[in-house]
Amino acid sequence: MPQLGFGVWQVPDDEAEKAVATALEAGYRSIDTAAIYGNEEGTGKAIAASGIPREELFVTTKLWNADQGYDSTLRAFDTSLEKLGLDRVDLYLIHWPLPSKGLATDTYKAFEKIQADGRATSIGVSNFLPEHLDKLTAETSVIPAVNQIELHPHLQQRASREKHAELGIATEAWSPLGQGKGLLEVPAIVAIAQKHGRTPAQVVLRWHVQLGNVAIPKSVTPSRIKENIDVFSFELDTEDLGAISALNEDRRIGPDPATFDVA
Ligand code: NAD
């Protein structure tokens, strides 16, 4: 899985085709969509039009909350594949754990069947807290390949990252730039950016890379799409990493997975 991918949340279907095409031209090979984003069709069109061999691409989509449950998961997956115009995805994720519904294990058993049938190369989860991972791994056979969680310098998720390391799960950061809100103006980040002749977004994405996270920044602006993947020719030093580490506030932008149950 490429360590840097392109996320398309909040990109309308017609704009997704253009944004994904721009990302593929810029060199991204990993695209993160979801059934609930409503842009699997646009994403699929851009993939088809790109002419890039399928095996060079890494396509992720996610099962929406309302479709949790064994049979409904199998049906929802068929719909996602059809919209994407693909015969397999590289990664299929349970979007939220929904602990109040208690359906994650049945849902994941359908994921295991989808993987066994060769229609999702890897399966995983999103927004699972350590306790959700403990329960899921106790009740199912395949360790999730990935847990995609909110993660940025204001929410560094140390407990989750430790749990992932213990279980052998890759950590994927959503809203890796903190949605751009304020984080990119934080003086410590601006100072590190000036020191390296880079932008604040590049510094934050480079921090993810050096931490070992997979990151999937989103932008619809071509110059930013290019800027966000150009983070492999400089390195943050120990002092930079320490300064960013000190920015943790355990502050979420998105919902708390312990209570989020919107279907
Ligand atoms: P992000 O942290 O990627 O921030 C995106 C915003 O930051 C942009 O809309 C833009 O305003 C700004 N930005 C982007 N590049 C910039 C640059 N170079 N300079 C200045 N500003 C810049 O936030 P996101 O879109 O919330 O998250 C990224 C992806 O993560 C989503 O598109 C989606 O694929 C995924 N995601 C998953 C979940 C989940 O529940 N699994 C939830 C949210 C997002």
Automatic annotation (TrEMBL):
The entry's keywords: NADP, Oxidoreductase
NADP is among the record's keywords: yes
Membrane is among the record's keywords: no
UniProt record similarity statement: Belongs to the aldo/keto reductase family.
Species this protein is from: Streptomyces endophyticus
Pfam families: Aldo_ket_red
Protein name in UniProt: Aldo/keto reductase
PROSITE patterns (alphabetical): ALDOKETO_REDUCTASE_3
InterPro entries, alphabetized: AKR, Aldo/ket_reductase_CS, NAD(P)_OxRdtase_dom_sf, NADP_OxRdtase_dom
Domain NADP-dependent oxidoreductase: 4-249
Transmembrane segments: none
Coiled-coil ranges per UniProt: none
